[in-house]
């Protein structure tokens, strides 16, 4: 079977409620100009975030610019003030292209960065003309400053029923320790490939009335199932958050709401929740533990569900979610899920409406923090600038910050933004509400 029972059930629910997704207006980009993306670095608690690296001076072709980026990241890593680092220490990368037509040529250069097993997990999207002028590739990297032997990587080696095989120089997931026994798990972007054939899945018997919804909802559910299964293999207890990259302006508001509804359902506690041991067994994958067992192949059974509500010390809040409209995705997909998982004994999750918008914060027992701020669409340009200044003042006064990313359609001043920038066509948040921007902060509290 293509879908596990829980995912098949949520797909049926979406299709049965198809009438609620009708009559959606187009939602074009609201950007008033190109966004400036300056190189930035954040470093704390064993994590080094190197952001917005570009090389337009290297040439006009994406391959030339990727080669320039590769040179820059090597130089930055080798100049580390304590122990020189290398690309072997990168655990996650985000690659933004102007056009997905440049994917193959960019990839040929990208692969040269990673010569050893366990390349980083990766998300690749095309942002079109939302990228700065002259920039055809922009990359950001997360570097693990800890012991290499403590890392765990997941690589799906061959076609199977379980999850798509790796089709490029990346791992499906990388897990690193933070504090105590807690681990953070970076999951690669997941598109809806049918694992056995490695072809894009489509509904073979759609209704004419809702052809787009039938196809899209199947792909949204399958790609999220890929993320779920990979998370289970990596012992994820809880999702800190997820981003659903989506494409095409037509029905974009409905697509965002479908993605939210699927996410909400899969993260809600059900009275009849149980684990199907047969569905939770997989066997065609390699887990590589650091540098000591590079060729170890393992069979495993997942015994704990995701989410694991036993670690939750609060109630009533769904892990944060953003839907981000971009120009294109790999293999012409219309959705790609990218998630951040966490393995821990306990965490609290709280949400509140503030002057800036909805804020959802997760804090673990070891004081790892993850915050998503949804800036409301209704804010004017001046209000957006003021909101951003207030948010930065509240979240960057401490050196505990390890990660900062903004998904935005607006070209408001970002000279003071401390981290990664993802320019996009539209952003959607909790319950599919349209946003002016979505902001993510990660940190380790004292």
Describe this structure in words.
The protein is of the alpha+beta class. The protein has one domain (5-21, 31-444). The chain is built from 6 helices and 23 strands. Strands 6, 7, 8, 11, 13, 15, 16, 17, 18, 19, 20, 21, 22 and 23 form a 14-stranded mixed β-sheet that branches. A 5-stranded mixed β-sheet has the order 1-2-5-3-4. β22 (426-428) and β23 form a beta hairpin. α1 packs antiparallel against α4 (211-233), α2 (62-78) runs parallel beside α3 (103-110) and α4 (211-233) runs parallel beside α5 (252-266). It is globular. The protein starts with a helix and ends with a strand. Mean pLDDT is 86; it is low at 274-286 and 288-303.
Short description:
The chain is α+β, with helices and mostly antiparallel strands.
Please supply descriptive tags for the structure shown above.
446 residues, 14-stranded mixed β-sheet, five-stranded mixed β-sheet, diphthine-ammonia ligase activity, RutC-like_sf
Oligomer status: single chain
How many β-strand stretches?
Answer: 23
Instruction: Give the overall silhouette.
Output: globular
Beta-strand fraction estimate: 25-35%
Fraction of residues in H or I helices = 10-25%
| Unreliable parts | 274-286, 288-303
Major sheet characteristics? 14 strands, mixed
Q: State the end-to-end CA separation.
A: 47 Å
**Number of separate structural domains:** 1
User: Kindly state the mean pLDDT as a whole number?
Assistant: 86
Number of helices: 6
Give, in order, the helices and strands. Answer: HEEHEHEEEEEEEHEHEEEEEEEEHEEEE
């Amino acid at each position: 079977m293509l879908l596990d029972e829980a995912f098949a059930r949520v797909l049926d629910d979406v299709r049965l409620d198809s009438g609620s997704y009708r009559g959606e207006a187009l939602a074009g980009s609201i950007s008033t100009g190109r966004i400036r993306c300056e190189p930035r670095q954040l470093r704390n608690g064993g994590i080094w975030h190197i952001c917005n690296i570009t090389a337009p001076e290297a040439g006009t072709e994406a391959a030339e610019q990727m080669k320039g980026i590769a040179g820059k990241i090597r130089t930055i890593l080798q100049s580390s003030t304590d122990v020189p680092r290398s690309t072997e220490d990168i655990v996650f990368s985000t690659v933004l292209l102007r056009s997905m037509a440049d994917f193959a040529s960019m990839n040929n250069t990208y692969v040269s960065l990673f010569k050893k097993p366990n390349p980083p997990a990766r998300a690749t999207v095309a942002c079109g003309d939302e990228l700065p002028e002259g920039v055809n590739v922009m990359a950001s990297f997360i570097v693990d400053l800890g012991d290499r032997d403590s890392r765990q990587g997941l690589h799906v080696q061959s076609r199977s029923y379980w999850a798509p095989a790796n089709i490029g120089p990346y791992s499906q997931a990388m897990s690193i320790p933070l504090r105590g026994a807690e681990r953070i798990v970076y999951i690669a972007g997941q598109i809806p490939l049918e694992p056995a054939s490695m072809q894009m899945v489509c509904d073979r018997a759609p209704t004419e009335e809702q052809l787009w919804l039938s196809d899209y909802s199947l792909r949204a559910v399958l790609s999220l199932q890929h993320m779920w299964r990979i998370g289970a293999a990596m012992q994820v207890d809880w999702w800190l958050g997820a981003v659903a990259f989506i494409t095409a302006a037509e029905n974009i508001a409905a697509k965002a709401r479908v993605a939210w509804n699927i996410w909400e359902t899969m993260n809600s506690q059900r009275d009849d929740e149980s684990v199907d041991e047969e569905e939770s067994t997989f066997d065609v994958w390699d887990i590589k533990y650091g540098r000591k067992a590079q060729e170890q192949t393992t069979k495993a059974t997942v015994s704990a569900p995701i989410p694991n509500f036993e670690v939750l010390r609060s109630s009533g809040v769904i892990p944060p979610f953003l839907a981000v409209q971009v120009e294109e995705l790999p293999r012409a997909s219309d959705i790609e899920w990218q998630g951040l998982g966490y393995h821990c004994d306990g965490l609290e999750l709280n949400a509140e409406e503030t002057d800036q918008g909805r804020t959802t914060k997760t804090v673990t027992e070891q004081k790892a923090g993850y915050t998503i701020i949804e800036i409301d669409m209704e804010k004017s340009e001046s209000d957006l600038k003021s909101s951003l200044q207030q948010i930065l003042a509240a979240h960057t006064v401490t050196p505990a910050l390890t990660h900062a990313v903004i998904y935005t359609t607006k070209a408001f001043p970002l000279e003071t933004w401390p981290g990664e920038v993802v320019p996009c066509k539209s952003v959607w948040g909790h319950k599919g509400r349209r946003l002016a921007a979505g902001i993510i902060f990660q940190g380790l509290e004292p």
